[in-house]
Amino acid sequence: MLLYHGSSETVEFPEIRKARFNKDFYFGFYCTQYREQAVRWASRYGKTGFINTYEYTPDPGLNYLVFEEMTKEWLDFIVSCRRGISHTYDIVEGPMADDTIYNYIQNFMDGKISRAAFWELARFKYPTHQISFHTVSALDTLQFIKSEEAYGREK
Questions:
Q1: Domain span at residue 109?
Q2: In a domain, 32, yes or no
Q3: What residues contact 122, with CB distance under 8 A and at least 6 apart?
Q4: InterPro entries recorded for this chain (predicted)?
């Protein structure tokens, strides 16, 4: 299966980097099965970015968590990760909390909206997907294929 990673640079050797802010599935190396989503990631700062393509080969010996859709468990997991609570999964996969959904999650975390209100607001305009790699063993499932420039929306 092909996966894409949008970045400001070519990423031939993926890394797990600790960042200032916690992400949906905690710190990890994030990819997607949707090329257009990777283009948005790569060009999100208004500059030329790069779409890195990888061949992904699942390893049944790894510890996976997969969310097929947005569920109560998905929301609770994201809230936990964004609060800085780590997990023991090698790979986590599921829908992405895009910028709009991120604001709803933050409002839910801050107690500004109820769980019911979150679900009422949480409707994607397009499908999203993310798969995050949290250990070196998980990164070993990726084989770099190529990198190409991304200029914003695909033509």
A1: 2-150
A2: yes
A3: 70, 101, 104
A4: DUF3990
Flag whether pLDDT at 101 surpasses 80.
Answer: no
User: Do residues 114 and 122 lie in contact, with contact meaning Cβ atoms separated by under 8 Å?
Assistant: no
In a domain, 118, yes or no: yes
pTM over 0.70: yes
What distance in Å separates the CA atoms of residue 91 and residue 138, rounded to the nearest whole number?
6
The encoded tokens of residue 66 equal 């997969």
- What value does the CA radius of gyration of the chain take, rounded to a whole number of Å? 16
**Domain annotation covers residue 41:** yes
Rounded to 5°, angle at Cα 116 from 20 and 86: 30
Q: Is the dihedral of CA 137, 135, 56, 81 positive or negative?
A: positive
